[in-house]
């Protein structure tokens, strides 16, 4: 009986050793025996499984989105000339003919749609559509003082947008700021910018912004960029940004 107990002890010790070492992730200890957690992966690795398009500075045709003011003129019927606002569902409501879809259409596309709608009431209607001046809307998220949608007047860059959003938090990684934009083919594009260098060197490219750009400031050394993509793009972005970025950018 005593001999059997002696054999059991080494077996228990071996099983305990396997539980502590064989099934756990490697740990790093310093000279004082203190454990250090593993270094997080770089933030851009969190985007590796998202099918972004190649970045380009190509300037696309102006498209209308919810909140835009549009002047619709019908020279042959001046009483139909109106200034309209694109509603949250993407439509504008025309006199006589009712709502038509305006969101995600260019000026020539919308002129064609409105002319077709009025063709039931007018003979060969000629329609002129123009966009009224509006602030540059962008979304700033991550490690900034006041994340959310901000309006910028005139030309603006990513650094100015972040400053207007309350500036960098002490935990922000200003050297790895991400700008997300809708590309010419409708897919999202992503670009990384070193704005820390921009704070030190005036000649640095601070990335001029376009309407509905999304600026994300990650936490220093954090690998939570992918979580931001899921949470902000699917849950928190305003409806106008959903139109602007396109469905493929958030799926």
TrEMBL record:
Residue ranges of domain Polysaccharide export protein N-terminal in the record: 59-130
Keywords: Signal
Membrane-spanning parts: none
Keyword DNA damage: no
Pfam families assigned to the protein according to its UniProt record, in alphabetical order: Poly_export, SLBB
Record GO terms (molecular function): polysaccharide transmembrane transporter activity
PROSITE patterns: PROKAR_LIPOPROTEIN
Ranges of residues in domain Soluble ligand binding: 137-187
Gene3D superfamilies listed in its UniProt record: Outer membrane lipoprotein wza domain like, wza like domain
Matching PANTHER family: POLYSACCHARIDE EXPORT PROTEIN GFCE-RELATED
Protein name: Polysaccharide export outer membrane protein
